[in-house]
Target: fumarylacetoacetase
Amino acid sequence: MNPENTRLSWVTSANGHPDFPLQNLPHGIFSPAGETPRGGVAIGDYIFDVGAACRAGLFNDTAQYAAEQAAGSTLNAFFALDATERRALREALLALLDESSPHRERMQALGDSLLCPMAACHLHLPAKVGDYTDFYVGIHHATNVGKLFRPDNPLLPNYKYVPIGYHGRASTIDVSGAPVIRPKGQTLPPGQAEPTFGPSKRLDYELELGIWIGQGNARGEAISIGNARKHIAGLCLLNDWSARDIQAWEYQPLGPFLSKSFATTVSPWVVTAEALEPFRCAQPARPTGDPKPLPYLLDPTDQETGALNVELEVLLRTTAMREHNLPAQRVALSSTLNMYWTLAQLVTHHTVNGCSLQPGDLFGSGTLSGEHPDSYGSLLETTVGGKQPLMLPNGETRTFLEDGDEVILRARCHREGYASIGFGECSGIIQPAH
Amino acid sequence: MNPENTRLSWVTSANGHPDFPLQNLPHGIFSPAGETPRGGVAIGDYIFDVGAACRAGLFNDTAQYAAEQAAGSTLNAFFALDATERRALREALLALLDESSPHRERMQALGDSLLCPMAACHLHLPAKVGDYTDFYVGIHHATNVGKLFRPDNPLLPNYKYVPIGYHGRASTIDVSGAPVIRPKGQTLPPGQAEPTFGPSKRLDYELELGIWIGQGNARGEAISIGNARKHIAGLCLLNDWSARDIQAWEYQPLGPFLSKSFATTVSPWVVTAEALEPFRCAQPARPTGDPKPLPYLLDPTDQETGALNVELEVLLRTTAMREHNLPAQRVALSSTLNMYWTLAQLVTHHTVNGCSLQPGDLFGSGTLSGEHPDSYGSLLETTVGGKQPLMLPNGETRTFLEDGDEVILRARCHREGYASIGFGECSGIIQPAH
Model:
């Protein structure tokens, strides 16, 4: 066993922490009450203030440079670092926060100015998002949704060749905790010939992995599949809130627009590519009969180690549950192994036409449903288009989301012999339409 | 006749200038050779350096404040002004550049530091684009394209209710003159069962109006149709380059993606809402039998004065034409009157779900084809999907664009008794695939 995997921290809440042990060290943007936003790293129940550590002279050389990039009011400069620089910062942070760090007493003396209790801090969107792209690579989700329209032929002919994606709205990406206002829009009620206007009646969540792009590429220069992994800085959770009734009426022929652009929520912590290394695995074999990816999407290393094993969870907490002090109820348990394409394949496909990516661009994976109903990542699938209500343990039912409902996404990586790491929460409460 | 309409400028090249007479005064970002980009206003063959004018004390009060916002390296701060502030700057510029300006000699003494010859300047993208949205409101284009797939029923049922739009890629928006590299991608060759990969063989232009968003709106607060006009700062030309073969294979079910995201070109000058006032007109009546817009999209003032009469032109210049010193050939003449929805309706629809717009967001109108083949705004339409080659006057033919082809968009507003104003050019030359 690599000693790194059992290292403990002098920040004792980190040891055994479900999300943020020493082995995770995700980056984010935080502000203690009344102070300005700045870069931090989650460790147990605390946030390590990267800028304060820089000023205290706790870093050297490359790590110092990387820490300066990670200390600002957005992580865009941190995302622009190369993997070597990011790794130097990670190694320095591991050493500083290790229980045997020689600088431990000096850091403890800095108190709250170095380690802020997370519960007392406000968390912000990690970066200024340049462009946001939402993919559709959860094959069970694509199949389930396709079945609602085409029971005998759910997947379109391009699905197994093209990592399907579309451009999303960057201005309405929010961090976990921001309210989600029920959108209004045009819908075509069943059986009617003319549309009507009003609040969406079929508001849904979508369980997705978010991918933060690191270094970008120049216009016209595609990122080869062998190099693509280096361009991913880290991951988060992403809820692609969707108004199904608006979507059904508007989406032909150019795709989803207002049915998605009212809100997208991401978790505040960027779990770095380095922290995720132990949880890499082989891309699951394609079912017999599926085509081989075209050569530009195929790389042996990517096939062998380009997938990720991240457990994903959706929880729902209704107003009644809050009023009765009941905890949120899990409504789905899924995994990133349900992706038909690797993250590297998404990066390469996105740039193969010469499109430029930039540090701080965000990808959504698409909804990551599993094969069975208890793993479906949207209510559209769980309730079969609203026809089979979801039964909640307290006796409530849901076809789609109601005002006051809170949706919480969580993610965790487990591996025998390694410390588990988590993503923290990605949550939002539905507010009534304005 | 309003005296403003016949005013002349002491910048004599402005008088009778096809694009930039005194009555236009469009804003842009320019740099003289070796200098940093900054805000300017086109007047005849010159660019008026707004920052230099500020420093020379040529503005007062509101105009001075507005000029400072228009003097930076992008126009985002200018776009964030309200219409009153923009108008104060326009009035000040009109007075300064009028042939009877009392400051004329002082300005002339400043020479090139105030008025730079446009030919000696580099022009830049006017603003940092936050989000780019492409609409589809050219009804003849939608009908022509629809006919290629559904001859008997070209328009989908939502078309006359929903101003159809989708999110585009912001990172690949370029200013006129930037090269356009032929994209590579997956395509399904006719008659084949499996896709192939390579340079697009069906590269096309799309003639569109570009709309620069001024003041934005808060999340959750829709912009009412009565207020929407105020949120448009100005207009430009936009070429939504499209790889038809990539588009046909990738676009189901989520819309165009890599077939568009390799490049979008805009003209460098932002023709302000104020300069366009004389060219406003009533929205053309909907054909008998078409539904009335839903109430949220309907406003009497918008119906009476919300359309624009702008003549639009596409020109093509091939390598052979350049080699033989032949001018670019017009391949289409169209008009913004081919929009099924007003600009205000686009703004209102985009925000009706609570989506926030920001200063510097860009909309494309969608391809603005007319009813007849000589007014079609894309080769897809002109050549009926590549089946009827376009004959050029020098004996060449085109189905789609070839390497070396230059596409030039132009626009002009005419009205009896008013000085004509133009948009300048939006051009790009196709470069071979990398």
In short: The longest helix of chain A spans residues 83-97. Chain A has two domains: 3-124, 132-431.
